[in-house]
Amino acid sequence: MSDKEKLAQWMIQRGYATGHGDSVEDLLQELDWQIVDAWTRALINGITTEREACAKLFDCDVWAYDYREIASAIRARGKQ
After folding, report:
1. How many CB atoms lie within 10 A of CB 62?
2. Nearest Cα to Cα of residue 72 among 57, 55, 48, 60
3. For each successive 10 residues of the chain (80 residues), what is the average pLDDT?
4. Alpha carbon of 2 to those of 6, 8, 15, 26, 47: distances in Å?
5. Can you spell out the DSSP letters for 1-48?
6. pTM for this model (two decimals)
């Protein structure tokens, strides 16, 4: 089995697409953008989740002051 075939098999086993990998370099480029894309999506999801958790702290009636505008401001930062 060639290095290209080994790499393609490794990628497929881990859920990565091989694209049109005609060489090991092509496969590595394909793998690179998929890893970057997955990390980017994970970071964005983490930021969105954390932002919502922060907003929920202020989005209730237990405070003496109405902090819901703070909650709205926190959420609005995600739309910029």
Report:
1. 6
2. 55
3. 94 93 93 96 93 82 75 81
4. 6, 10, 20, 14, 41
5. --HHHHHHHHHHHTT---TT--SHHHHHHHHHHHHHHHHHHHHHHHHH
6. 0.66
Q: Which structural domain, as residue segments, surrounds residue 39? A: 3-77
**How far, in Å, CA of 44 to CA of 31, rounded?**
20
Total number of domains constituting the chain: 1
Candidates 31, 23, 29; CA nearest to 3 is 23
Alpha carbon distances (Å) from 25 to 2, 9, 16, 39, 41? 13, 15, 15, 21, 24
Three-state DSSP class for 77? helix
